[in-house]
């Protein structure tokens, strides 16, 4: 198994002390920083937007892994790319023309990711795997941190892996902890997002390391 990319989700951080909480995961050995953008339409929650991503960029060297849970993501790609996103992941369910948005993201010289919700079949996205840098398999319904991991979602990973080019990053997000991380990496995931497990832990360094 190649290297696992750990991407702590700042959704579970203290927003009044965001810089401090970003440094904590940076020092703990995180690889990326996962930023959840929600619009109150695609998901029933509102989180953070472009100005916050821009501010985060100034205080960390970690690549910014921006997860767009928004409708019409194509309208905001340029703004998030200029704000400093290194990976931009949109939802398959939110777009009509997948290749067009992938091209748009790549035109800014950054990685293009696509995410699927729990009820979306892996078969729907197999045709797009060779144009993507990352495929995010949601293991909870997107919208909130702290939910329970759904193993049947992770069962999609082997199907995806069978059809994916060698270098596709397969990421999981939702209910990831040391136990569920093991399940996901066994299925073939090589990037793990975790919010609550890391930020609600008494020992953040140990929590990050325990995911590897
Ligand atoms: C949920 C978000 C996740 C969330 C994960 O919609 O996409 O990134 O922060 O939180 P945990 O790890 O607590 O399930
Ligand atoms: Zn996320």
Strand-helix topology:
Blueprint: E1 5-8, H1 18-27, E2 33-38, H2 50-59, E3 64-69, H3 77-83, E4 87-91, H4 98-106, E5 111-116, E6 134-138, H5 151-154, H6 157-163, E7 169-173, H7 178-187, E8 191-194, H8 196-199, H9 204-210
Parallel strand pairs: 1-8, 2-3, 3-4, 4-5, 5-6, 6-7, 7-8
Bound molecules: D-xylitol-5-phosphate and zinc ion (ZN).
D-xylitol-5-phosphate binds at residues 9, 11-12, 34, 36, 67, 140, 142-147, 173-176, 193-197.
Concise synopsis of the structure shown:
With about 210 residues, the protein is of the alpha/beta class. The chain has helices spanning about 20-25, 50-60, 75-85, 100-105, 150-155, 155-165, 180-185, 195-200, 205-210; strands spanning about 5-10, 35-40, 65-70, 85-90, 110-115, 135-140, 170-175, 190-195.
How many helices? The count is 9
Report the end-to-end length measured between terminal Cα atoms: 11 Å
Instruction: Just name the CATH architecture.
Output: Alpha-Beta Barrel
Average pLDDT, to the nearest integer?
Answer: 98
Poorly predicted regions are: none
- Look at the structure and name the CATH superfamily: Aldolase class I
Shape: globular
Specify the structural class.
alpha/beta
Percent in strands: 15-25%
CATH names the topology as: TIM Barrel
Helix percent reads 25-40%
Task: Report the major sheet.
Answer: 8 strands, parallel
- Radius of gyration, in Å, reads 16 Å
CATH class: Alpha Beta
Strand order of the largest sheet: 1-8-7-6-5-4-3-2
Q: How many strand segments?
A: 8
Give the assembly state of these chains.
Answer: single chain
Number of domains: 1
Secondary-structure element pattern, one letter each: EHEHEHEHEEHHEHEHH
